[in-house]
Amino acid sequence: MLLLSGDWHCFFKRFQSAIFCKQKKRHLNTVPHVFTLFLDCSAAACQSRAEQPQSAFKLLEIDDKYKIMKPGDVVIDCGAAPGSWTQIAATRTNASGAKSHLPKGTVVSVDVLQFHPVAGAITLGGMDFTLPTAQEKIRSILAGKQINCVLSDMAPNATGVRLLDQENITRFCYSVLKFAVSMAAANSNLVVKVWDNAEVPKLEADMLRFYDNVKRIKPRSSRSNSSEFFLLGRGFKGTEKTGN
Ligand SMILES: C[S@@+](CC[C@H](N)C(=O)[O-])C[C@H]1O[C@@H](n2cnc3c(N)ncnc32)[C@H](O)[C@@H]1O
Question: Fewest CB within a 10 Å sphere: which of 7, 14, 16, 232?
């Protein structure tokens, strides 16, 4: 539903601003002009709809296979905009309480971009997850509750320099791992997106210090020619057992 309503919102925004621009240029005085704008904006909205589920399928595939979220869970979604992972997390944890016979979950989603609210989730737009302010905000929202699943689909803006981009996404993964370790419930799960690079084996080894099992996952919906894959850590051991 959200995907569709998001498209309509996107469509109306584009249409509204296109009309506004044209009016400013005093070109919009005939019906055919309005009709052309309508078609252009519909195409743009369809394109955004085509892009959005691509992300969603990756998480659906991971959760369907590994059951990383369940009703009542506390989930943090890092790099959440425009919100399809958040929507899945909210549904799978029953964050809106729609299923009254099941425990109600909590989903907190963060993105450096502003994004639309997602039913049942707490959305924090305009926040850089890697900064202490964002992580403190999440801590204060959770008020002592431990986290059952941390998701990160965060991706830095590509610089065009592959090594730098890989370094940046690996830095994101470490930021998410450190945060997860400080707030995770026993047996909880972690999913981080990474672009393959020489640092990944070290990242996997570091995750293994805290999680019983760490797995590389390349969802079918992830383009085969991209270096993207996900690391799934399952069974958080707790910091005492690891001695960290
Ligand atoms: C692939 S998109 C996420 C798509 C999202 N999972 C979904 O299903 O809608 C990656 C997101 O990471 C966000 N991002 C990049 N750097 C970030 C940061 N430092 N803090 C929070 N979000 C960040 C981007 O703004 C972008 O929205």
Answer: 16
| 155 and 119 in a common domain | yes
Compute CA distances 217 → 58, 99, 170, 192, 233, whole Å: 10, 31, 16, 10, 11
* Closest C-alpha residue for ligand 1 atom 11: 79
Its domain, for residue 155, covers 53-242
pLDDT for 45: 37
Total number of domains constituting the chain? 2
- Ligand 1 pocket residue status of 84, Cβ below 6 Å: yes
pLDDT reported for residue 223: 93
- Same domain assignment for residues 127 and 31: no
% of the chain residues with pLDDT over 70: 76
Same domain for 113 and 31: no
Q: Which of 57, 153, 172, 230 to mutate to test the pocket of ligand 1 (most atoms within 8 A of CB)?
A: 153
| Residue 126 shares a structural domain with residue 237 | yes
Q: Would you state the structure tokens that stand for residue 222, as one six-digit string?
A: 């992830």
176 pocket-lining for ligand 1 (C-beta < 6 Å):
no
**Residue 112 Cβ < 6 Å to ligand 1:** yes
Q: Are 234 and 215 in contact (CB under 8 A)?
A: yes
pTM here is 0.81
